[in-house]
Amino acid sequence: MSTEQHPNRDAGTELTTDVVVLGGGLAGLTCALQILRERPRTGVVIVERATFPLPEAAHKVGESTVEASAHYFETVLGLKDHLKSAQLRKEGLRFFGPHAGNEDIVPRLEVGISRSLPTWTYQIDRGRFENELADRVRAAGATLLEGTRIEDVELGRDGHRVLLQDSRHRSVVGRWVVDATGRRGLLKQKLGLRETVDHDVNAVWFRVAKRIDLEQFDGAVAAPTDPEARKSWLARVEGNRWQSTNHLMGPGYWTWLIPLASGSTSVGIVADERFVPFQTINRFERALAWLHENEPEVARDVAESQDLLQDFHVLRHFAHGAQQVFSAERWCLAGEAGVFLDPLYSPGGDYIGLGNSYITDLVVRELDGEDIGQRAESHDRAYLGSFKGALATWQQQYALMGNAQVWAAKVVWDTLSYFGVNSLLFTSGAILDPAFMASLGAPWQRYQEVAQRMQRFFRAWAEVDDGTVDAMAFIDLSAPLFHRLNVELLLPDDPSDLRERFHENFRTLEQVTVELMRGAALRQGLELRPEDIDPLSFDLGSALRTVPQDVRNSRRSTRLVGVELAEE
After folding, report:
1. How many H helices and E strands in the chain?
2. pLDDT tens profile 121-142
3. What crossing angle do the helices spanning 404-417 and 441-464 adopt, rounded to 10°?
4. What residues contact 284, with CB distance under 8 A and at least 6 apart?
5. Is the bond preceding residue 53 a cis peptide, omega within 30 degrees?
6. What gap in Å lies between CA 376 and CA 362, rounded to an integer?
7. DSSP-assigned beta bridge partners for residue 17
8. Closest CA to 268 of 221, 228, 318, 218
9. Contact assessment for residue 244 and residue 115, using Cβ atoms and an 8 Å cutoff
10. What ranges in 295-440 are assigned the alpha helix state H?
11. pTM exceeds 0.90, yes or no
12. Residue 178 DSSP SS3
């Protein structure tokens, strides 16, 4: 079936089109726009229960982009003009480890950039962004049915019928249907595709109509920071820390501070249920009391501005999976209607971009007459494989957030692997090419094994190291190695050059892995040579048992591991 001559045919009570997108949020609108940019003659109908324009600031979370999602929005969707003029440039991810009750931000271990990286990322006001997307999909030829509820979806061989409420149309029939209904997961529920994920973490968040600038925190009331120390702390970072996605870390939790272009600040608490029971933070008053106890500087700032509170939301056990997301029977799940990992490191936009790119590839090829059976299976396997492989980055790792040293080392490794491999493969388009991915060969398989192994290693390290580091310690995520890998995201490559760059980056990551393992052992009084360590088999506990405890105690150090690795 094709609607090329009349992309969206209106038969009064029923519309007929090529693609029906269920849900006009971020995933649905971007998917529709990408399809229309790739194949402008495609008929697209988007069904959305909300009406536009949406409110700014207090709309949805998922406000922070990273390199892959920024590339997707800027380049794939052509939104650079809007992002640079109407959103806020982000100054990277920034982490502060726990220190002495967290009364003062200055002495806390800081992991973040000292100067802007070449690749732009953004803080997104979701209401403002989705309003822009709605305008652009309409301009591209889509029909946007606002204020319309979805009653049911009837999947069929020749077309899929979507039954509607609150619309002059009773139904819309599309050759393709893309479920972007978010956590409702209409198709996933209907087809019994939901998979549970063993990651019991919850989130609460709110917005305040003001800028929260952690450089203006007043510090410990009882023992204020030395003025010279504060001056030095301010001077080591060019630009504004408040423009970063700031993470204030503690055992089992992190608190986010995200600025929005509208002038508001998004504040969130994300916590493992084992460390922070949900009922202690599930109302604003409880969350504020919890902040007073755990992040007092944030609490004092928020408490002074309660009259500026714009909203408060909660979400329990947010991680979820799916048995299948793409089908040759012409249905797909997009964004959170399919899978969701964790908000830490802001991967949501990346997975929207990756999933939508797979969907667009399938839709365009099928509408142009290609048999997509094998390709749909390959894309589904690759996408879900990426999701399941990435879970180790978050699963069982929240306990590490209270260990300043181990968490800092984890951020170093996770960031380098993201720049050097994961983001590189997406921004280059290589990850969408099954033949190219297969050509990476054994090093690609080894990279995935090392990535899994490193997450287990961080847990083993935390068992023997209390994480003590010197006050005001700093790891610069814009140091030479980070800068090189980041700037290379902007470089075009032919397949052979890209393949070699992946291999080179993975060799660098293996060296980083060995040095992190050596550093962990050295902090416990055990000196090892690089050749003593195989990243896939090194066992820190067993290695430490080869040296008497009293000898190791005499050699222990609080030397911060990770600083020198960034210097290449």
Report:
1. 18, 21
2. 999 999 999 999 999 999 999 9
3. 170
4. 206, 309, 312
5. yes
6. 7
7. 174
8. 318
9. no
10. 296-303, 348-367, 373-390, 404-417, 423-427, 434-439
11. yes
12. strand
Tell me how far the alpha carbon of residue 108 is from its chain's centroid: 24
Give one DSSP letter per residue of 262-300, joined into a string: TS-EEEEEEEETTTS-GGGTSSHHHHHHHHHHH-HHHHH
Give backbone dihedrals phi and psi of 62, rounded to 5 degrees, phi first. 90, 45
Q: Report, in angstroms and rounded to the nearest whole number, the Rg of the chain calculated over CA atoms.
A: 24
- What would the DSSP string read from start to end of 66-106? -HHHHHIIIIIS--HHHHHHHSEEE--EEEE---GGG--ST
Q: In the chain, which residues have pLDDT < 70?
A: 1-6, 11-12, 220-223, 566-568
Dihedral angle, C-alpha 49, 51, 53, 57, nearest 10 °: -50
Q: What is the largest CA-CA distance in the chain?
A: 84
CB 275 within 8 A of CB 125: no
Question: Which two structure tokens, joined as six digits, stand for 494?
Answer: 């032919």
φ, ψ for residue 110, nearest 5 deg: -115, 130
Q: Which residues on adjacent β-strands are paired with residue 89? A: 122
Closest CA to 256 of 117, 488, 90: 90
- Residue of 330, 407, 373 whose CA lies nearest to 153: 330
Q: Which of 325, 330, 324, 333 has the alpha carbon at shortest distance from 365?
A: 330
H or E, element range at 462? helix 441-464
Length of the chain: 568
Strand pairing report for 121-123 and 160-165: unpaired
CB within 8 A of 178, min separation 6: which ones? 19, 20, 21, 22, 28, 31, 331, 332, 333, 334, 359, 363
Decide: residue 200, CB within 10 A, 0-12 exposed, 13-18 middle, 19+ buried: middle
Give CA–CA dist 337/326, Å, rounded: 12
> Which pLDDT score, from 0 to 100, does residue 1 have?
41
d(CA 339, CA 321): 5
